[in-house]
Automatic annotation (TrEMBL):
<dbReference type="GO" id="GO:0016787">
    <property type="term" value="F:hydrolase activity"/>
</dbReference>
<dbReference type="InterPro" id="IPR036663">
    <property type="entry name" value="Fumarylacetoacetase_C_sf"/>
</dbReference>
<keyword id="KW-0378">Hydrolase</keyword>
<dbReference type="InterPro" id="IPR011234">
    <property type="entry name" value="Fumarylacetoacetase-like_C"/>
</dbReference>
<feature type="domain" description="Fumarylacetoacetase-like C-terminal">
    <location>
        <begin position="33"/>
        <end position="233"/>
    </location>
</feature>
<dbReference type="Pfam" id="PF01557">
    <property type="entry name" value="FAA_hydrolase"/>
</dbReference>
<keyword id="KW-0479">Metal-binding</keyword>
<protein>
    <submittedName>
        <fullName>Fumarylacetoacetate hydrolase family protein</fullName>
    </submittedName>
</protein>
Length: 233
């Protein structure tokens, strides 16, 4: 059920999750957050998988997991929390069964994000054949930058993506190393879900993921999009 216009609720609804837009006072409202798993071959290998044998697969975070505050609160119930630097793709429209050649028409803009993961809880879920949300969809688990509109950034298909932990380079890659490119991700997802304006896609991470501790400083960069700095608190 979609609510339009004035409505009376039995409790006060929570605020609409939103991301700032670079160079604008307006906000981008977030509908859903889709994350593609193991989209860089080297990362798939480091996680113990063969990238040549897998179709794309997706999991979700919650819209309010996105956080532009610059602080990542170390989450409860875990002692092994990992960083994963990713390109964030924001959709301005959607639909079902979107052709690859029309997929970029759906993109509003891009940003830099981290897919923070409670790796120990994710591992237990995997071992038991259970969903990953406990390891992926916790509070502030997607630190991110403001969005850069595609009208400004274009549609980056290559360029450096890297992450430093306390000044040491830990992840290094190039957007052209993505197994499933942005148009393919959008098209594939639209065969599984009805994509909508406000949807976010986190497009996978290069190799080199690892654990963080309180006090760590993470600095990420994607060429042509921007820089992200996050402190673990």
């Amino acid at each position: 059920m979609n609510i339009q216009g004035a409505a009376t609720f039995v409790i006060e609804p929570t605020a609409i999750p939103a991301i700032p837009v670079a160079g604008s006072e307006k906000l981008f409202p977030v509908h859903r957050v889709y994350c593609v798993g193991r989209n860089y071959a080297a990362h798939a290998v480091e996680m113990g998988h063969d990238p040549d044998k897998e179709p794309p697969f997706f999991f979700q975070k919650n819209p309010d997991n996105l956080d532009t505050s610059g602080a990542f609160p170390y989450p409860p119930a875990s002692n092994d929390v990992h960083y994963e630097i990713e390109m964030m793709v924001a959709l301005k429209n959607g639909g079902r069964d979107i052709p690859v050649e029309r997929a970029l028409d759906c993109v509003y803009g891009y940003g830099v994000a981290l897919d923070m993961t409670r790796r120990d809880l994710q591992g237990k879920a995997k071992d038991m054949g259970r969903p990953w949300e406990v390891g992926k969809a916790f509070e502030s688990s997607a630190p991110c930058t403001a969005l850069v509109p595609a009208a400004t950034a274009g549609h980056p298909s290559e360029g450096a993506i890297w992450l430093d932990l306390n000044g040491d380079r830990r992840q290094t890659g190039d957007l052209n190393q993505m197994i499933w490119k942005v148009p393919e991700m959008i098209s594939y997802l639209s065969g599984l879900f009805t994509l909508a304006p406000g949807d976010i896609i986190l497009s996978g991470t290069p190799a080199g993921v690892g654990a963080v501790e309180r006090g760590d400083v993470l600095k990420g960069h994607i060429e042509g999009i921007g820089d992200l700095e996050v402190r673990v608190v």
